[in-house]
Amino acid sequence: xxxxxxxxxxxxxxxxxxxxxxxxxxxxxxxxxxxxxxxxxxxxxxxxxxxxxxxxxxxxxxxxxxxxxxxxxxxxxxxxxxxxxxxxxxxxxxxxxxxxxxxxxxxxxxxxxxxxxxxxxxxxxxxxxxxxxxxxxxxxxxxxxxxxxxxxxxxxxxxxxxxxxxxxxxxxxxxxxxxxxxxxxxxxxxxxxxxxxxxxxxxxxxxxxxxxxxxxxxxxxxxxxxxxxxxxxxxxxxxxxxxxxxxxxxxxxxxxxxxxxxxxxxxxxxxxxxxxxxxxxx
Length: 282
Prior knowledge:
Blueprint: H1 3-17, E1 23-29, E2 35-41, E3 51-55, H2 66-74, E4 78-82, H3 89-99, H4 102-110, H5 113-131, E5 139-144, H6 146-155, E6 171-175, E7 196-203, H7 211-219, E8 227-235, H8 246-264, E9 277-281
Parallel strand pairs: 3-4, 3-5, 5-6, 6-7, 7-8
Antiparallel strand pairs: 1-2, 2-4, 8-9
Helix pairs in contact: 1-8, 2-8, 3-4
């Protein structure tokens, strides 16, 4: 039995049995005085664990990406899913109404500088909240869709909307990364200095094309230990855990765990052998 079916079975068993670590909804103050909602999946380790922050896509909130929150906490990470109020479901619906359709509404939101400013403040608020409890020995930032765009910006990708991330993380994970478009110029990622894991799927289309457009973000990277994984049949929303996403969830967890655990041990790591997943390394 390959690793992918085993992981799918483990994910299903965890949901059925409730065998997950402590989960807590909290809020953290950010620089402008607003409160950022957080869902914290605490690691079982008694010592100060590594930290993973998760930024969901446009319309998402802190209650999403649960499969990753639970899996990474089981792997020993304090995992925090962020709620981004300015780019959550209510603002997205408003953008859709104003723009006259879902595609245009999403495109409007993901190209709005103020929404990224707010997201970066949310990230800083979550980081400060966690660091007040203990200073994590290793910190990673993961995002999906607009969250992946946020990760790219935070990691140092060039952009046309004048947003600059603070950095401060040891590694970055982008699920459904963005290629060149109204936000990112061609080869925007060439200045990124830290390793990145990028994951997409053969049915993961975006604003400018199919998954090949997303792969251009990886092509621009020069950092060693970076991986690009393409999961056969995975759709955009599968990475958020929505739809028939069991295979996508299992592969995403396996890739993220193996990549991050190797990095925090000081190694580039060996990719897991997963059926239906093609992988490229730098």
